[in-house]
Structure prediction request, 196 residues.
Amino acid sequence: MVSFISNFILGIALALPLGPVTLEILNRGLKNGPKNSLLFVAGAMLAELIYFSIVFFGLNEIAESFFVQNILGFMGVGFLIYLGIGNLKEFFSKKKKESENNNKNPFLAGFLITFLSPLNLFMWAGIIAVAMNSNPSLFTISGILWGILISYIVVSLIGSFGKKVMNKKRIKYISLIAGLFLIFYGFKMLFNILGY
Prediction:
């Protein structure tokens, strides 16, 4: 049980830094409320579960191939920049309507932003390798997934609560900042893929 709790805390520590997934969960909570944000979380967690399963059950040789990593990486770069540009377009738009970009399919967006990041694959490969050495039980190692899930839900609820206490102008500026960070992470990922 102690190993599960330490892995749970590790999952929280992995999920809380301000990365593309956390930013988008917060952004969706602020702009569209809890349903949209939680659907995004569900999609992100499905991708996390797939990577977890690939690494835990030993299929990481396929996933670690140079070709697969680069294909996923370039698709991830494109998707992050696409989301960021959508936020920028919404900020500079004179129209008052909600973003269609954020409402189309939050589950799919959450899945894609998480699955198309090759960094997640490296994260899972490294973490599970270490965790397997200390306690190879599926229950113990799944503590990491539970920690990530709880962190994402808390961020989603913070964003949703923020929608109630913040005015539309502030939410619009937070969306602008989130868009700029998504584009930044997209280009950062591109430079990592290209070896810079």
Q: What stands out?
A: Residues 2-12+19-194 form one domain.
